[in-house]
Amino acid sequence: MKRIQINFIGWLSILLFAAIMPSSLLAQESFLQKIEKNTSITGIKSLETNRFSEKYVMFLTQPLDHRHPEKGTFLQRIIVGHIGFDRPTVIVTEGYGAGYALRPQYREEISDLFDANMIFVEHRYFLESTPDSCDWQYLTAENSAGDLHFVTTTFKTLYSGKWISTGISKGGQTSLLYRAFFPDDVDISVPYVAPLCYDLEDGRHEPFLQQVSTKTDRKKVEDFQLEALKRKDSLLPRFQKLCTERKHTFRAPLEDIYDFCVLEYSFAFWQWGTLISQIPESSASDEIIFSHLLAISDPAYFAADSPNLSFFVQATHELGYYGYDITPFKSYLSIETSNDYLRHLMLPKELEAIKFDKKLSKKIIRFLKKDDPRMIFIYGENDPWTAAGVTWLKKKNNIHVFIEPDGSHLARIGSMPEAEKQKIISLIKKWLAE
């Protein structure tokens, strides 16, 4: 009888322990048990978080070339914020590195709004997701879409609810092309400030900058650029000293790089929503003019050792970019032309022969015109990238475009006017419920 009594008490203790055990711990065990069964996933580590029940970083083995898996593999970094197996899942199609998503306080906007799981995918050829042998032929839109398809297929064994893909800027562009290659992988796509460029120098950004905001504000921006160029002789020594201290190297003479920083100023100014009131008067000191120029358009962007080389390769090959209108500044410039600057300034000699392929943009345009997937595009009115945005679609039932008034590249659901914000939230909520 004594032995039976001990067993009974033992079982009672177990039941009581389970009843008071935090649900997050039970979920953690369940998540790890499930994910560890997948032999393609390695290096699982728990992360500190104050935004999810659990958070992990891990690596998924991906083929370098999804059409030819025999070409080799690489490890792609993935960050998972777990809420519950019965919740929707947001896959973040990051266009660059995922380092910032490791922070304990990080949570993507849509995951937060709808209490959804988050799967954050670092883009191939960036940071921890760079192959050992950096063969650029495998850095294609099709392969990046294939990566995302494999991630989604893998995690749908855990999360069977509705799926939303989203990304910002190049990540939004990645979310868009992912939907074009694999239209049925997700239920909803929400690309933020996503450009769809048609060429290496698209041609729509320069006219956009000639019409953005008000005539008075545009003149203020242009006047500053002219002032910075007029003072080039006096500011160039400062510029050289700064670049030397930072150990920057460039693929063009320093005075040319100074010119490009001034040309880049207007694009960067409007992209990030800088206040007109922050532009110094033309009577300001050299120090103030120089400091403001660098605050908006830093020479590191043009440095030969830029950490964004992978992006520049993609832009030159498939994604496209923007050009500069040098007409108002020509008499003050050292350069004769800015044409093809991305190829000459941003790429090493061995990659300058890369040719732009228009097949990607044509594929995406055909997809958007022919199909009507559930997609919400978000743009900022004053953001130059909106010039190449998907704002031209008409008569679609499921594709919606929202433009934040006076908004920049920081346009988000939360930054929209309240009426538009609630409309977006209601739309996603409705789609998730269907």
Q: How would you describe this protein?
A:
- By secondary structure, the protein is an alpha/beta fold.
- The protein folds into 2 domains: 21-198 and 359-433, Rossmann fold, CATH 3.40.50; 205-351, no CATH class.
- Helix content is 40%, strand content 14%.
- The protein has a 9-stranded mixed sheet with strand order 1-2-3-5-4-6-7-8-9, with helices on both faces.
- Helix 4 crosses helix 5 (170-181), helix 5 (170-181) packs across helix 13 (359-370) and helix 7 (215-230) packs antiparallel against helix 9.
Characterize this entry briefly:
The protein has 434 residues and is an alpha/beta fold.
Please tell me what the overall shape is: globular
Distance between the termini: 58 Å
* CATH fold assignment of the largest domain: Rossmann fold
Low-confidence stretches: 1-28
**Number of alpha- plus pi-helical segments:** 14
Order of helical and strand elements: HHEEEEHEHEHEHHHHHHHHEEH
Could you describe the largest sheet, including whether it forms a barrel? 9 strands, mixed
State the CATH class of the largest domain. Alpha Beta
Domain tally: 2
